[in-house]
Amino acid sequence: MARTPAIAGKTSDPLHHNPNLNPYFRFDNESKHIKDSVFSCRGIIINERFWNRIHKELMDLSKDSGPVILYQLGLNYGWEVGGQGKDLIKDPLAAVNFLEYYGLLAGWGRFEASELQLTQGRLAKPIVVKVFDNFFARAAGRSETGNPGCFFLSGLIAGVVDALFGAHHNCLEDKCISAGSECCEFVVARMTMD
């Protein structure tokens, strides 16, 4: 189970008390919009068909460069998410917990990062991020090649880690639900040229 972050002095999981309550996303009756309270912006709900169509069309249109484009899109968005998470929760380790929980409530999947070891505020060794019930892998369906294919999420994880720990990181997917694994598994390592 994902660890619940402490928010405004509360340490209990709000969903435990009311499973219909999502503290990060709510429908605003006045504006008639979904509000993302973490990032102070409007949200939308997308379903698997919508994501799968975007993913498939992008891969078909861009051929061999599709994985790179998706990774780069994820990397840039992850940088923003990680930066905002670090601004909200000053301790980078606590921000990891917070963002794991945000990803769960956003519907992306249940994230579990291995124990982080830091040296001077940077990752001292690679970490493993497991994503159970990964929306992006489930939406894509079964991999035709048997290879992992969560390029967007790989980039997003790298971007989040870059923003939280102030260095550049690679994120490679070792296992993927769409290729038959129980969960998607990503290995994140700091690039040596920092």
From TrEMBL:
Positions of the 4-vinyl reductase 4VR domain: 126-190
InterPro entries registered for this protein in UniProt: NO_sig/Golgi_transp_ligand-bd (IPR024096), V4R (IPR004096)
One Pfam match: V4R
PANTHER family on file: DNA-DIRECTED RNA POLYMERASE SUBUNIT I, SLR0144 PROTEIN
Name recorded for this polypeptide: 4-vinyl reductase 4VR domain-containing protein
Organism name: Nitrososphaera viennensis EN76
